[in-house]
Amino acid sequence: MSKIAVAGVKESLGHELLTLLSENDIPVDDVYALEAKSPLGSIVSYGEDDELDVLALEEFDFKKADVLIFAATKELGKRYIKKAANAGCKVIDLSGATFTDADVPYVINEINGNLLTKELQIVGVPSAIVYQTLLPLAHSLKQHQLKRLVVNVFCSTSYYGRPAMDELFSQSRKIFLNETLADNQEIFKKQIAFNVLPQVGEFVGDETALEWSINAEIKKILQNDIKVHANCAFVPTFIGDAAFVNAEFNDEVDADDIRNNMQSVPDVVVFDKNVDAGYVSVDDVQGEDSIYISRVRQDVSVDNGISFWTVADNLRAGGAKVAFAILKKWM
Fold first, then answer.
1. In the sheet where 227-234 sits, what is the strand order?
2. Could you write out the DSSP letters of every residue in 184-246?
3. What is the pLDDT of residues 11-62, one digit of tens each?
4. pTM > 0.85: yes or no
5. pLDDT grade, residue 184 (50/70/90)?
6. Which of 3, 120, 162, 222 is most buried, most CB within 10 Å of its CB?
């Protein structure tokens, strides 16, 4: 049995990874839990009955692990991912630290899983919103060539981790109690409770960090110069991302055919009824493993276009489960 190290276990994504490993019967003795500057004696839950000692990332001997699933920050990733790889440990990177490395592919199994060779040492996991945008199109991409994607993203506060989710909760509570928010805007620059903020990440020129990464990741995964435009906003939700996607192809497409293709993709669920509540919302998908699709229709503003609504639990379906799928295929 492979020895698996998980870095960033105190974060929401790291916790979800440990939960998923436990659910898939990975023995507790085969898992190392890592966290930066972890105090001696720290522990973390592993499933319902077991606990893991949390080891300091700075002191861990990566030769003890066969694979490292890195779910800590990008800054830490730049310091430790190459160190782990040089020690002979394969690395699944969820931090984005290796994105600009030409020899590190970003993989969605159903689209480019053939890149997971035995010789490969590091593989990147795309951002959750890119995964839930491209996975439903996996079978259609084998029949049609994409020309342009427009992705309008509604991002949950979990993008910034537990502190951001706590800030949303605290602000909501204070508003109901008619208390001031003057000293309660640390993660977000503006009030997030009962609000929508058109900024996800720092600005990179005219784009924000997530808008830039969506564009770059899609091009890296599809290995072509497709035109991509992303608009991203924070909405006052805790977990789960949603997006309206407009996909334009080079040849004629039919929305019904695209919908049928989506239904045949593993881990994609299409619930699409043109009636009140005949669609899936963010609240429906928390804790779910699948990507959910609704509102598939023809985009009549272009010659060969369709649009759809996609929602998923960004921590589980769009993060931990993608990494675990890569782990199973690769190891």
1. 227-234, 146-155, 241-249, 305-312, 291-299, 268-270
2. --SSSSS--TT--BS--S-EETTEEHHHHHHHHHHHHHHTS--EEEEEEEE-S-SS-EEEEEE
3. 999 999 999 999 999 999 999 999 999 888 899 999 888 999 999 999 999 9
4. yes
5. confident
6. 222
